[in-house]
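Researcher: I'd like a structural prediction for the single chain below. Treat it as a standalone chain; there are no partners to consider.
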Amino acid sequence: MLERLFKLETNIGELEKFQQKYQIDDLKNDLQVQWILRYGLFESIQIVIDISCHLAAKYNLGNAQTYSDCISLLKKEKYLSGEISERLLGMIGLRNILIHEYVAVDIGMLFGLLNHLDDFRQFASEIKDVV
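Model: Treating it as a single chain, here is the predicted structure.
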């Protein structure tokens, strides 16, 4: 799991570079650049999910039926704060949209998520001692 946390930190750095390099208008006209953003966010969210579900199982926190359940179990047992848990639950919904509804994704909204990369850092900070 430490490798996953390292990958998450790497992804955050790459997404920050992306944010510095591109403006929203660049994305509107370049599908390849949109793909980069989509995949960077998707992979980062998936890492959060993988770590959360692993910890829920490792510490026998309950029977998670969904990805959201994994986050909720970590919150319930105080591995994650309520504040970050709520934001992570929203990310899981975004992950599902990125995977299943390619056309329905608002690229402006995705670009705006680059202003919330600290959510990934907060997640890593809150769970690093239990990984």
